[in-house]
Amino acid sequence: MEAKAFEELKESILQAKRYLKGEDVPVRVFYVNGSNVKTIRENAGLFQRELAEIMRVSVCTLQNWEQGHRKPTGPAAALIRIFEQAPEQAIMALSA
What we know:
The chain has 96 residues and is an all-alpha fold. The protein has helices at 3-20, 34-43, 48-55, 59-66, 74-85, 87-95.
């Protein structure tokens, strides 16, 4: 591993430790809640089934997000943010 890459990785770990101790605040925070998911889906002009297929999740999972029973995390939350910012491009890229 290159020295620079190692130092960046080391700094990331130290930042995570500071954050967990409450000594640091995250640089980027994304909030995705159920009403956002539904609004984003509707703004994209998609039915639940269509968005679920594009995102490769079950319709039940999408419904749980929209109803606030669960929150999308990780890659799913990132995809929803992409749909929010550029729905047409997201549909084209993920439907291919």
